[in-house]
Amino acid sequence: MHALKIQNVEKTYGKVNVLKGIDIEIEPGQFLILVGPSGCGKSTLLNMIAGLEEVTNGNIFIGDRDVTHLDPKDRDIAMVFQSYALYPNMTVRQNISFGLEIRKTEKSEQQVIVDKVSKLLQIEPLLDRKPKQLSGGQRQRVAMGRALARDPSIFLFDEPLSNLDAKLRVEMRSEIKELHQRVGTTIVYVTHDQIEAMTLGDVIAVMKDGEIQQMGSPQEIYDNPRNQFVAGFMGSPSMNFIPCQIEKVNGVMQIELESAGASHKMLIKQTIQGLESYAGKKVILGIRPEQITQQGEDKVDSAMLDCAVEIIEPTGPDTQITARINGVRTICRIHPTAECQLDKLMPLMLDMSKVVFFDPETQMRIY
Amino acid sequence: MKKKSSAPRQSLGNLLPKLVVAPTFVIAIIFIYGFMLLNAWLSFSSSRLLPTYDWAGTIQYEKLFANDRWWVAAENLLLFGGLFIVICLLLGLFLAIFLDQKIRAEGAIRTIYLYPMALSFIVTGTAWKWILNPELGVQRLVREMGFESFTFDWLVNTEMAIYTVVIAGVWQSSGFVMALCLAGLRGIDDNIIKAAKVDGASMPLIYRKIIIPGLRPVFFSALIVLTHIAIKSFDLIVALTGGGPGFATDVPATFMYTYSFTRGQIGLGSAASMMMLMAVAAIIVPYLYSELRKKKDEH
Amino acid sequence: MSINRVLIYSLLGFVALIYLLPLVVMLITSLKDLDEIRTGTLLSLPQSLNFDAWGKAWGTACTGVSCEGLKGYFWNSVLIVVPAVVISTILGALNGYVLTKWKFKGSDLFFGMLLIGTMIPFQVILLPMARTLGFLGLSGTTSGLIMVHVIYGLAFTTLFFRNYYISIPNELVNAARIDGAGFWLIFWRIIIPVSIPIIVVSVIWQFTQIWNDFLFGVVYSSGDSQPITVALNNLVNTSTGIKEYNVDMAAAIIAALPTLLVYVVAGKYFVKGLTAGAVKG
What average pLDDT is seen over chain B? Predict the structure, then answer.
């Protein structure tokens, strides 16, 4: 049984195709993240699930009901907005019970629900305040309370944390995760922040230009990106993309990397069938910063490269250095105690067992 | 949960907002655009005492352009409008700049500058008619103060009467420009001024090079509104000079009224009003065009 | 205080004095009798407070043929202003609500069309409207004037509400829709409670505009249905023997009093209305 099924959904504004055939299916209780850069259509998709925007083509099912043309109020959903959208003229209590009141829930039952929800979110002392008397984090909680009170079959979150400052954002992130674990309701959550996507989601759908680029678990998307866009979008700092030449020498595939004036041949220690046909051609090597690090003891699969250090950026738990490989600025993540100096050569290890390759034309992953 | 809504209810939901604005839509179509067209038609008809919807070609316009009184009215409008606008803008700007110097009684002073705007032009006209009348008004006041030969008879002087309209008009409307400019001044980013100070610019220079140019949009909208007031001005002239002496202070608005409603020359009156519409359009259309283009550029 | 500050203060004070002077002169004159006016100057103070001119302006002064003062016309204006303000504000609020929160294809175009209505010189609709009022049997009635003021005030009130509602986040409406509220419920429960400031602006603007109107009043009313501005003009121009400046001034102040009062009480909103009307779009 699916909790939400989106079937070949399209959206056009005039001649502009905002969503081009979206298919998504999630199980009850799953936490789905829609992530992508601004303008990728993720918010439009969420609004269409909510019923706030018309669907041009295709169908949306919540449970086994076709809700494609239903009003928002008939879809059994609740939504948390980016600006929280608390009703400014109502107290917190009235905000939470407004939806219940409209649905003609008994007054006594409203009371019970408001009490339960406010306890869950620890907003009991705020119940008689107006929204403008609340801090950002408190507003966020009330907005979630309003959604929770309705006990819908799906929660929709539209970038709910982007108006909070950095510290609060991290706090609320774990609160949302905890809430989900406790309540267990299906959630669809839109964000442009890939860290939020990684930490919160059971399933991530990475979107770009109105299309889903890849859908899968956070780890799957991180480790096995389908194309260069997904690889670059997920992860911070981004994956390094280094153009290089593939060669086949004695039946073994290898690439050539130039660094600090010297050329190095690197063996590809994976079997990638697709690479065979690229022998003698250019490909894009994708390697994450943590896969280039200082010389360790037992890195069997690694290859060593002397690099000239151009920038050093300590972040605390580790240090990022920027070096130039094949003429491309490459970010490497090294241990904070590792010795490195500006403009000096530093030996770095490339973890060749985890690197990925992309076709320079199509930008698709080479498997 | 309530029962599911069916398709027809949905379409009613979509229709409701349109139904709500429909009366206004119909009103706009009939009473603004329909009437404008009807009025245009009248101006090409032979209407006199009663409107007749026939086709008389451009005869009314020919009559209008051959009418000396019309040209006096048009000239008066240019003279009055030009002076009124320029003085209001300058006065408003300077008052706003002075008021923006962290003045202690700012609220009270602002209230005083702006209160004439709350008055009817009829009241303003009545008041200034009394103040400017040569026998008992300002002239008498100054003579009593010892300047025996002082004369100030603009109100009854054919050559000068139009300037009394300027005085009363400026008194009534300059506070409005002041309010607009003050709001504009308050809207200018403090950091820009700080940056200029750090760069070593003096306050007068900052005003000349940064702040006043920054008020351009405010000036522009003030200009539009003042032009609008000037072209429409009717009540002030009726109350202050009645268009006189003779028809020395006639403007298109009083001309149109006189010919349409007291002289039974409806065709001529509507032709005059069309000319007023053209004048407003000549100001508004380029303004709207530039505004729209600005908006498009922002996207 | 530096010499500059002194200069600025005295300049501002001087200009304020000049702006106040006409009102002061009106007041002084209205309290004098005719002899004092003839022998004194504009600024000479009345010897005693004499409200005769006020009484006459209100109750017995001649406005054309009838000599019953301004009082009847004052109430005419009230009767015109109140319904016209209420109706145009309500319609403006609804229009603004639809044009921002329930946009449809062509709604922007419609708004643009309406905006033109704030800019046309009313002379251009004067003649067809006179004909229409006659056709509807509303010539020379207060109902006719109410209708005219509602129609040509709509563009302004719609503009006010539209520009105000555009700053209310759409998410608020969406949240209410998801909570199950419909068009009217959202309007009453969510939009109206946050609209008080703009309602005040719209009411004050419409009130001053309609109260101060002369053009529509003089063209579309006659005799008993005239608004106060028309009556005031008639009063001033009715020549029965000697010119009674004190009565003229008392009458002018009476005609100005309601709008002045509104301005003093709610000046902040008045200025907002002016600037909102000026910065169109």
Answer: 84
Tokens of C16: 């304020």
Read off the pLDDT of residues A188-234 as tens digits, 9 standing for 90 and up: 999 999 999 999 999 999 999 999 999 999 999 999 999 999 999 99
With pLDDT > 70 as the criterion, what percentage of chain A qualifies?
98
Residue C18 structural domain: 3-50
Contact (CB, 8 A) for A33 and A197: yes
B53: phi then psi, degrees, rounded to nearest 5 = -95, 75
Segment 219-238 of chain B within 8 Å of chain C by CB: 221-222, 224-225, 228, 231-232, 234-235, 238
Evaluate whether A218 touches A195 at the Cβ level (below 8 Å). Answer: no
Q: Tell me what pLDDT residue B205 has.
A: 87
Residues C218 and C118 in one domain: yes
Domain membership flag for residue C26:
yes
Query: Which CATH architecture describes the domain A240-358?
Result: Beta Barrel (2.40)
Substitution target in C120, C210, C219 with the highest count of B β-carbons within 10 Å is C120
List, for residues A91-132, the tens digit of each pLDDT value. Answer: 999 999 999 999 888 999 999 999 999 998 889 999 999 999
Residue showing tokens 């209230």: B111
The DSSP H or E segment spanning A304 is strand A302-314
Q: Which positions 17-36 of C are in contact with B (Cβ < 8 Å)?
A: 19-20, 22-23, 25-26, 29
Residue C159 lies in a domain: yes
State the Cα torsion C226-C230-C234-C237 to the nearest 10°.
Answer: -170
Average pLDDT on C35-51 reads 78
C118, C178: one domain: yes
**Chains interfacing with C (3 or more CB pairs < 8 Å):** A, B
What chain A residue is nearest to B7 in terms of C-alpha separation? Answer: A69
Say yes or no: C226 and C95 in one domain.
Answer: yes
Q: Give the span between the Cα atoms of C143 and A95, in whole angstroms.
A: 43
**Token couple for C168:** 């209310």
Number of domains in chain C: 2
> Do C163 and C238 fall into the same domain?
yes
- Superfamily of domain A4-233, CATH level 4: P-loop containing nucleotide triphosphate hydrolases (3.40.50.300)
**How many domains does one find in chain B?**
1
How close does chain B come to C27, measured CA to CA in Å? 10
* Each residue's pLDDT tens digit, A250-291: 888 888 888 888 888 888 878 888 888 888 889 999 999 999
Shared domain for C171 and C221, answered yes or no, is yes
Give me the pLDDT at residue A300, please.
55
Q: Judge if C122 and C79 occupy the same domain.
A: yes
